[in-house]
Design brief:
single chain; 71 residues; mainly alpha; 2 helices; transmembrane helix; membrane; transmembrane
Length: 71
């Protein structure tokens, strides 16, 4: 996992905890934007994780093509 992914995942977890605290103290109306921001970060993390996996597969495919050409 890359540093950017770790940071996004940690921030989204922290925002869920903060949102839960705000819900307990002030109500769901005030914590709703915090939860939505946490969900947006989770979606962003999932997008980046998929993108990184595709890049890794491309690199593996290119390395295999190079091996076949050298034979």
């Amino acid at each position: 996992m890359k540093l950017k992914g770790i940071i996004l995942l940690s921030l989204s977890a922290a925002l869920v905890i903060i949102g839960t605290h705000v819900t307990m103290t002030q109500g769901i109306t005030f914590s709703y934007p915090i939860f939505m921001f946490a969900v947006a970060m989770l979606f962003w993390y999932k997008y980046l994780k998929t993108k990184w996996a595709e890049q890794d597969q491309e690199e593996v495919g290119q390395q295999q093509d190079r091996k076949k050409k050298s034979r």
